[in-house]
Amino acid sequence: MSQQASSRSNRTGAHPRNCWYAVATSAQVSREPLGRRVLDTGVVLFRTTDGTAVALEDRCAHRPYPLSLGRVDGDRIVSGYTGFAYDARGFCVHVPTQSEIPVGARVRAFPVQEDGTFVWVWLGKPALAGLRRPATTPWLTDSEWATLGDEWETEADLLLLHENFADITHVAVVDPYIAPPVLRSSPPPLEVEVTETTVSFSRTYQPAPIPAWQAELLGLPAEAEHVQREQGAFLTPGLWVDRWDVYVESAPKQNEVYTFRFAHAVTPISPGRTRHAWRVSRNFALGEQAGKVLLPIFTDYYQRVKRILETMQRVLDTDGPRREVNVSADAAALQVRKIIRNMVADETGSGHRGAALQASRAPGGR
Amino acid sequence: MTITQTIVREHEADLVVREAQTVANGVVALTLSAPDGVELPAWTPGAHVDFVLNDDLIRQYSLCSSPSKLDAWRVGVLRAPDSRGGSQRVHDLFTPGTIVRVRGPRNHFPLVASRRYLFIAGGIGITPLLPMIAEAEAAGADWRLLYGGRERASMAFLDELAQYGDRVMIVPQDEQGMLDLESALGTPEVDTLVYCCGPEGLLSAVEKFCERWPAGALHLERFSAKPQEPVTEAESSFELVLQRSGLTLEVPAEKSVLTVIREAGVSVLASCLEGVCGTCETEVVDGDVDHRDSILNEEERASNEYMMVCVSRCRSPRLTLDL
């Protein structure tokens, strides 16, 4: 039973490839090459002279040297060792030692889409990129919203990050300062809505105070009680979004809704390792001063989450996965697992979902 | 300590019929979008939605537009004289502007990655295969389509299939007889996946041929329950443990597992209630499941990991589910 139980934990470390992942932020991609690792693949990013972001395999076709250690020359990237030059399609267009270009000398070029915040790269079957769209986060570039955030690598698997986003009832335990006080009481009914590719959930809380730091920013009395609503959505394996609405019904801010929106772009680097770019947007206290107050509060919280997830990953690595006890509040997380599991099965399978699942659980997987 | 109450449901929305176009004799193609034009949930080839026509009239239709188009969905609906009036209602009453309650999408007919595909469509069964074909073509797979129908004029989407040339074999029964399954499926191929959708006669015939094919090669979709062997013995009762909810219940002979779960106030997704749509798929922790659905294949049944709680039961005295 224990063998079967562990195989069912879904902690295989297998990740969907046919998905848009945010490999870098738009600001990070420039005329200087940027090397990133995604799905166990080296990717080099740079911009051509007209500003277009390009993503190529980060390995010269001639010798195993990363192109990201070379330089950008016009619309080409030139290896810092061999001097081989590649165009934006990944074709070798110049070899220093001869005039003929060796037949077939090229590196993989990955489809890229940019939305003003993130550079989304597709490492799956290139032809399928055109048939799927990256999920969008338009508020991140909307002037009605003020946004702050950061990004880093977390030594924990993609699935652990998604499961963390899928249930925020732990916030009160992890960081009592940031947590809305309602999270300390027993939660109201959780409503989970699923489609083939997405999971969303919502909870509406009875009137309760908001955190002291938020009341201060809003100029509201700390003890005032407001209806609050929490919503979260798994949009793709690469993007989680959520929001926290505070409904103010008393004067002087009657009928205002103050909202935090959260975007988490998560990108698997390898099994057990994930790039996490988080953004917190607000439709109130838009000024810089408020940002200076909020950034350390949210940075501290997400750093705590990072350390906890890294600890979980170490336990998994050391002791192996086990069948975990699920509770009712895990409903959204379980649906997310199912979607990710099915995506992996459909991509890897020469067989059906069941068979592919068994294959992906073969020893050696995590 | 109060127990967290959790409600899990599928996405549901009122959509507007934007176009209703007759695309073959007895087949209407509907284009649907949100009243405010917002994007609809993403889906992949093989997905279907429910039309909730009223509380007990729910019909499933495959999405047959492109998954890259998120502002509208398209379905193809055959006027089926023997149905409970669902398709008649769609044909007679649905015009541009009609509002329809749509649940889903969900997908129990996913296109698994492969180098080679054999697609077999009977009549309106072409609908889920259209986006699959587009995807197989884009991925550079080697594929063929056998498409049978009563007569050419009743076969929808022939114009859209014309671009694929001789990968597509159109077989109107009145001109060429039945699909030649013997030559298509008579010799099993190791690296070809077979995708079939159509009337029960075609599905059963293809299933029969594919018995000799590698396990997992055949993928098919039914929109009505597979004919079941009549149950000769009386149904037995068994104990039902819902692990996450911490409940132990009794499933009497005359009630389904789903009914008992719902009566206990535990939220579980379900839609067709006859084991064809796969919505109520539930993880099995323990118990010898008596599978009676039309979705899981032999291998999936044998793994005993999932069951459709709307129709399947348990042979052992206790069934434990992850609910």
Taken from the alpha-carbon principal axes, the silhouette of chain B is globular
Query: Largest chain interface and its two residue counts?
Result: A-B, 45 and 54 residues
The largest sheet of chain A is:
7 strands, antiparallel
In the CATH classification, which architecture of the largest domain in chain B applies? 3-Layer(aba) Sandwich
Helix and strand pattern of chain A = HEEEEEEEEEEEHEHHEEHEEEEHHH
User: What is the N-to-C succession of helices and strands of chain B?
Assistant: EEEEEEHEEHEHEHHEHEEEHEEHEEE
Average pLDDT of chain A, rounded to a whole number, is: 89
End-to-end Cα distance of chain B? 19 Å
Q: What's the count of strands of chain A?
A: 18
Strand arrangement within the widest β-sheet of chain A reads 12-18-17-16-15-14-13
- Structural shape of chain A: globular
- CATH fold type of the largest domain in chain A: Naphthalene 1,2-dioxygenase Alpha Subunit, Chain A, domain 1
CATH class of the largest domain in chain A: Alpha Beta
Number of domains of chain B: 3
- Uncertain parts of chain A: 1-9, 350-366
Spatial order of the strands in the main sheet of chain B? 5-4-7-2-3-6
How big a fraction of the residues of chain A is strand? 25-35%
- Taking all Cα atoms into account, the compactness measure Rg of chain B is 21 Å
CATH H-tier superfamily of the largest domain in chain B: Nucleotide-binding domain of ferredoxin-NADP reductase (FNR) module
Number of strands of chain B: 19
Given the helix and strand composition of chain A, which structural class is it?
alpha+beta
